[in-house]
TrEMBL record:
<dbReference type="InterPro" id="IPR036134">
    <property type="entry name" value="Crypto/Photolyase_FAD-like_sf"/>
</dbReference>
<keyword id="KW-0456">Lyase</keyword>
<dbReference type="InterPro" id="IPR002081">
    <property type="entry name" value="Cryptochrome/DNA_photolyase_1"/>
</dbReference>
<keyword id="KW-0285">Flavoprotein</keyword>
<dbReference type="InterPro" id="IPR005101">
    <property type="entry name" value="Cryptochr/Photolyase_FAD-bd"/>
</dbReference>
<feature type="domain" description="Photolyase/cryptochrome alpha/beta">
    <location>
        <begin position="6"/>
        <end position="136"/>
    </location>
</feature>
<feature type="binding site">
    <location>
        <position position="217"/>
    </location>
    <ligand>
        <name>FAD</name>
    </ligand>
</feature>
<keyword id="KW-0274">FAD</keyword>
<dbReference type="GO" id="GO:0003677">
    <property type="term" value="F:DNA binding"/>
</dbReference>
<keyword id="KW-0157">Chromophore</keyword>
<comment type="similarity">
    <text>Belongs to the DNA photolyase family.</text>
</comment>
<feature type="binding site">
    <location>
        <begin position="260"/>
        <end position="267"/>
    </location>
    <ligand>
        <name>FAD</name>
    </ligand>
</feature>
<dbReference type="GO" id="GO:0009416">
    <property type="term" value="P:response to light stimulus"/>
</dbReference>
<dbReference type="InterPro" id="IPR014729">
    <property type="entry name" value="Rossmann-like_a/b/a_fold"/>
</dbReference>
<dbReference type="Pfam" id="PF03441">
    <property type="entry name" value="FAD_binding_7"/>
</dbReference>
<feature type="binding site">
    <location>
        <position position="257"/>
    </location>
    <ligand>
        <name>FAD</name>
    </ligand>
</feature>
<dbReference type="InterPro" id="IPR036155">
    <property type="entry name" value="Crypto/Photolyase_N_sf"/>
</dbReference>
């Protein structure tokens, strides 16, 4: 690649699309030709457990499609593979950049990475411009009147809705400026196996959600046997759809669906404002619960052989497809933390390894909610009854029948714990730990 003038570099991360992309828009409006970059980040890939990871396969597919589209427009995508700091140090040796543009990423690892890149670039006098793209409101944009962050969802949601106006939903018309893309010639793309991964037969949900599904979301969303939710989690996670477009549809079609998208924003805000949640309980007292952490029971939970049909169906769905319905996520998570008294971080990590839509903020929020340690008012002594949940939300038994066909036969596992005894044990354990903590303050 030879260029007579300095380039603007645009770095794709959780925003893998050309349309309505804030950072890309501003890059394209800068004065120099724009070279798009994607890095297969070894710091992230090295932490993934197996050579088969459908998320890497999804990213690889998406990057291939982006590369093809950019080539059709006479441009290209520079795809690198390595540790971002080393990759940047290397490309800065070969190419001259006027500026680097990207979109914000709020996770603790990403923030450290970006700070290091910013410093490296600053040494060479190259500015690093970053933009909000994956949420409608970020950081301090929705706070209490005194400027402090909200820690409870309902008042946060009220303020979020009051703050929302058309300005925040305007799309970024990148297509007007595609002519400003650089023409780097044909650029190579590593294969999945060069990245150290194998492909699987996972089928990825599409980006087009039937309007009818969203319109009836509030009536169907709680029933795992129905195709009643959007399955857009994966696309929102990797930015293959725009949150602004999604919220606009939600506004028009269904307030309950919009509510879920606000939960997503809430958990992003919580992780940003209270980064300790990535490691510890939001409420410090809950770090003192004496978890039983029985490894055999954990293995049975993971495998979906606890003897509780709805729990087992959820875990088997997750293991087979990388997806689990939200109602069932709540039930299996509660079962792990309360019935088995296993540290919520074990479950959080298991989900992180399996969910296609895995997102640190939402997953952590969901797990802390289930453990009672999070930032909402649900009292710890409210323990889901997995059998009652099954009766209520899978009345026709279709979901359980699909994933646990043997559930009514003698081959089916005996319940790992007795519900009533486990419920009492959980409440006593929590109560004692929280009282001791309070008394020792
Ligand atoms: C223990 C636990 C772990 C979870 N882990 C994740 C995770 O890693 N990634 C993730 O995106 N969601 C997570 N959720 C939230 C929720 O279960 C999923 O977002 C939802 O099931 C995804 O299905 P969908 O795409 O069909 O969502 P829909 O119901 O159609 O909702 C649309 C979008 O809104 C967002 N959303 C919906 N519900 C929530 C919620 N409660 N919290 C935050 N965002 C929400 C998601 O981006 C979702 O794709 C978790 C929930 C629990 C209880």
């Amino acid at each position: 690649m030879l260029f007579s003038q300095p380039l603007t570099l645009f770095w794709f991360r959780r925003d893998l699309r050309l349309e309505d992309n804030a950072g890309l828009y501003y890059a394209l409006k800068s004065d120099n030709p724009v070279l798009p970059l994607f890095i297969f980040d070894r710091d992230i890939l090295d932490k993934l457990p197996t050579p088969v990871d459908a998320r890497v396969q999804f990213i690889h597919q998406t990057i291939t499609a982006l590369q093809n589209r950019l080539q059709q427009m006479g441009s290209g995508l520079l795809v690198q593979h390595g540790k971002p700091l080393e990759v940047f140090a290397q490309i800065l040796k070969n190419l001259k950049f006027a500026a680097v543009y990207t979109n914000h990423d709020y996770e603790p690892y990403a923030q450290q990475r970006d700070a290091a890149i910013k410093e490296l670039l600053a040494h060479q006098g190259i500015p690093f411009y970053t933009y909000k793209d994956q949420v409608i409101f970020e950081k301090n944009e929705v706070t209490k009147p005194d400027g402090k962050p909200y820690t409870v969802f309902t008042p946060y949601k009220k303020r979020w809705l009051l703050t929302l106006n058309e300005f925040y939903l305007q799309s970024y018309p990148t297509e007007k400026y595609f002519k400003n893309l650089a023409s780097p010639g044909v650029l190579p793309l590593p294969t999945l196996s060069e990245l150290g991964f194998e492909s699987s037969k996972t089928s990825f949900p599409g980006q087009i959600v039937p309007e009818e599904l969203v319109k009836t979301y509030d009536q169907t969303r709680d029933y795992p046997a129905l195709a009643g939710t959007s399955r857009l989690g994966l696309h929102l996670r990797f930015g293959t759809i725009s949150i602004r477009q999604t919220v606009k549809s939600a506004q028009q079609l269904n307030a309950t669906w919009l509510n879920e998208l606000i939960w997503r924003e809430f958990y992003h805000m919580i992780l940003y404002q209270f980064p300790h949640v990535a490691e510890r309980a939001f409420k410090p007292a809950y770090d003192h619960i004496p978890w039983r952490n029985n490894e055999e029971e954990f293995a049975q939970w993971c495998a979906g052989t606890t003897g509780y049909p709805l729990v087992d169906a959820g875990m088997r769905e997750l293991n087979a497809t990388g997806f689990m319905h939200n109602r069932v996520r709540m039930v299996v998570a509660s079962f792990l933390c309360k019935h088995l008294l296993i540290d919520w971080r074990w479950g959080e990590a298991y989900f992180a390894g399996k969910l296609l839509d895995y997102d640190l903020a939402a997953n952590n929020g969901g797990w802390q909610w289930a453990a009672g340690s999070g930032c909402d008012a649900a009292p710890y002594f409210r323990v889901f009854n997995p059998s009652a949940q099954f009766q209520k939300f899978d009345r026709e038994k279709l979901y359980v029948q699909q994933w646990v066909p043997e559930w009514e036969s003698s081959n089916y596992s005996k319940p790992l714990v007795n519900h009533e005894l486990a419920r009492k044990r959980a409440i006593t354990t929590y109560k004692t730990a929280l009282t001791n903590y309070k008394n020792n303050l």
